[in-house]
Amino acid sequence: MLSGHSSPAAIYGTAIAFTVVSGIVLIARLLTRFFVARQAGLDDAFISLGWFFSALMGVAICNQAYSGMGVHMWTLTMEDITTMSLWFWAFVWLYYTGLFFTKLSILLQYLRIFPQDGFRRICFIVMALISVWSIWSVFSAIFMCRPVSHFWHSISLNDPQCLPRLNTWYANSAVNIVTDFAIVILPLPMIKKLEVPPRQKMLLMAIFGVGFITCLFSILRLVFIYPIASSADMTWNSPLANIWSAVELNIGILCSCAPTLKGAVQKGFPKLIESLGSLRTSRKDSADSGSSGSTQNSIDKIKLKLDDKHKLTFSSFFQRSMLSARATEKSISRSDYDEEEATGFDGTSPAPIESGIEVVTSFAQTTEMIPDQDSSVSRANSGKWTAPEGPKTVVSSTIAAERSDSWDDAPIPVDQSLFKTLGVVRK
């Protein structure tokens, strides 16, 4: 027969450690949202409630261990068994309540990131299903027996005054697992459609897909429900179900907070981010210089081809020091090209660098551009340069002049609140 036993030390250690870690990460998230991104929302309130109930659940688990969970029932007094059963009753509905707020927080976060109508409709449907399930789960846990106090005063497994425990817990856990998978899978098709380099797309999918770990813990918890509901020695077989419940709920909180922590890291450890970016750039420069002599120093100097006769050259292509000093309009329309990734934002390979990148530029008159005498490029009365009419490469993205090299700063066709939602501040 499957055993759900574990030592009291493991119960204390797991419940306390995971609650503390998720609490620290939650604090980092809230600091990022309130003081870095300044974009706190309803999802932050819900995840805070989720952690609050998780902490109360941790208290219930520790009190169960203190009252006798993890030891054989026949070694305990009747008072100990009653006390442990009372804390177990509280643990069950606290667990369901914490899951409810955590899942709603994740879905609300999705709504802030992805504005597509079809996706939002699906999110609202999933939220409605989770709400109905959660209300049933919490009420079925609280009113498992009639009267409610009969739950901790009775030690019978098939008490006629109580709902069938095994069937009720299995049904609730099954729905919980299904909704876990639905929440994790929901954003992946949207991320796949984003027009970002493949490496950035994989990173985004990994961040949102880490929720599959929570699904694994939900399944493990389901497995260890059976020993509690079917064994006469409930105190001995309860620990693992409690442990996996604590792990599942707190990992869910961590998964909800993970996408928002980039801004906190940038704010707290800017030198670390800069050093990592410099290291990545230097490796890329080294690879580029060794691959082709004709494209030597291509990142430092790229010629932007306007037409056959007139060329505009920028030193340190797209570097903030150049554009912030000279461009007051802060806009440049260009081919979808990212020099760091050497690939288009739509995932395709760009034209060779030496052939130039055809662009249409719009800068303030402080931008230096000296045409030939017979140039067809005319200076408009407004003080802006306008490219001549004729075939040109139509660009598909507009980027800010001050351009970060971080993955989450790439131009993606989603609502621009994505950056602040994830806690990224564009300087």
Automatic annotation (TrEMBL):
Bilayer topology annotation: Multi-pass membrane protein
Short name of any one Pfam family annotated for the protein: Fung_rhodopsin
A GO CC term attached to the entry: membrane
Residues of the Rhodopsin domain: 28-266
Region described as Disordered: spans on this chain: 329-352, 371-395
Compositional bias ranges of the Polar residues kind: 371-384
Protein's cellular compartments: Membrane
Coiled-coil residues: none
Membrane spanning stretches: 12-32, 44-66, 86-110, 122-149, 169-191, 203-229
The entry's keywords: Membrane, Transmembrane, Transmembrane helix
Entries under PANTHER family matching the protein: INTEGRAL MEMBRANE PROTEIN-RELATED, PTH11-LIKE INTEGRAL MEMBRANE PROTEIN (AFU_ORTHOLOGUE AFUA_5G11245)
Family according to the record: Belongs to the SAT4 family.
Designated name of the protein: Rhodopsin domain-containing protein
Species the sequence originates in: Acrodontium crateriforme
